[in-house]
């Protein structure tokens, strides 16, 4: 079974709709992250959480919010989706080791029409 | 964060070695050099990391210049499965937030 799972894997929605992307992990890691990837580009950090009570904005947090419901769950919400939020979204986890290896989920492909 | 420069793309023949370069001239003394790769339709995966000394693991080798302003990821025998985008990421361990640039798209020819 995958250690980091994301649901849904694909989603098509309309402008103005509220969308929630979910991430679950069985690795027991404290740190979780949300990234987005636009076609042909690298990943950009949206939000990250170092433990259940900690939430931090990343490089591109505008238009997004997150919730850390438990150590194993980190959700990303788009309160009112817009077309330029069409992208691939990846969740990742890590422990604060000396070399910071992050483990990524399979991604959610979101299309906003 | 240190700025990185990588070739947009590289091509290799199967079973030949591949050297993927990365320039990170503004790297700080505490930054590790991480390499990740992203296979088609997948999330990124860790490949290797290093600080000053050259490093080897089962996936690859990492050669770090003495001045640390550049590094090279070495795949000793490329396979078709190694076709991916390779990202070089300088990052201090305390920050734990990776900044992905454009990476190098490696194509492997049979």
Walkthrough of the structure:
The complex is a heterodimer of chains A (113) and B (110). With 113 residues, chain A is mainly beta. Helix content of chain A is 0%, strand content 52%. Chain A has no helices and eleven strands. In chain A, a hairpin with a 5-residue loop joins strand 4 (31-37) and strand 5 (43-49). The mean pLDDT of chain A is 93. In chain B, a hairpin with a 6-residue loop joins strand 3 and strand 4. With 110 residues, chain B is mainly β. Chain B is built from no helices and nine strands.
What is the chain-wise order of helices and strands of chain A? EEEEEEEEEEE
Number of helices of chain B: 0
Largest interface, counted with CB-CB under 8 A? A-B, 29 and 22 residues
Amino-to-carboxy terminus distance of chain A: 33 Å
Biggest sheet overview of chain B: 5 strands, mixed
Beta percentage of chain B is over 45%
Q: Which spans of chain A of ≥5 residues are poorly predicted at pLDDT below 50?
A: none
The assigned structural class of chain B equals: mainly beta
Shape designation of chain A = globular
Ends of chain B: how far apart?
37 Å
- How many beta-strand runs of chain B? 9
Enumerate the spans of chain B where pLDDT stays under 50 for 5 or more consecutive residues.
none
Shape of chain B: globular
Q: How does the SSE layout of this entry go?
A:
The complex is a heterodimer of chains A (113) and B (110).
Chain A (H helix, E strand, L loop, with lengths): L3 E4 L2 E4 L5 E7 L5 E7 L5 E7 L6 E2 L7 E6 L2 E6 L8 E8 L7 E3 L3 E5 L1
Parallel strand pairs in A: 2-11
Antiparallel strand pairs in A: 1-3, 3-8, 4-5, 4-9, 5-6, 7-8, 9-10, 9-11
Chain B lengths: L8 E5 L4 E6 L7 E8 L6 E6 L4 E2 L4 E4 L5 E6 L8 E9 L11 E6 L1
Parallel strand pairs in B: 1-9
Antiparallel strand pairs in B: 2-7, 3-4, 3-8, 5-6, 6-7, 8-9
């Amino acid at each position: 079974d995958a250690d980091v799972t994301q649901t849904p894997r694909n989603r098509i929605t309309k402008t103005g709709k509220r969308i929630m992307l979910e991430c679950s992990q069985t690795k027991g890691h404290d740190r979780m992250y949300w990234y987005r990837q636009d076609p042909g580009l690298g990943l950009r950090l949206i939000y990250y959480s170092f433990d259940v009570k900690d939430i931090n904005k990343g490089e591109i947090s505008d238009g997004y919010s997150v919730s850390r419901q438990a150590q194993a769950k980190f959700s990303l919400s788009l309160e009112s989706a817009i077309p330029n939020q069409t992208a691939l979204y990846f969740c990742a986890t890590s422990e604060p080791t000396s070399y910071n290896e992050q483990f990524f989920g399979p991604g959610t492909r979101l299309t906003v029409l | 964060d240190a700025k990185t420069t990588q070739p947009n793309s590289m091509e290799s023949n199967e079973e030949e070695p591949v050297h993927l370069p990365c320039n990170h001239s503004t790297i700080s003394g505490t930054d590790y050099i991480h390499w990740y790769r992203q296979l088609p339709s997948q999330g990124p995966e860790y490949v290797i990391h290093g600080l000053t000394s050259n490093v080897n693991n089962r996936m690859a080798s990492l050669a770090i210049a003495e001045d640390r302003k550049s590094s090279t990821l070495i795949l000793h025998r490329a396979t078709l499965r190694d076709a991916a985008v390779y990202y070089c990421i300088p990052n201090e361990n305390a920050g734990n937030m990776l900044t992905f640039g454009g990476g190098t798209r490696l194509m492997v020819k049979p």
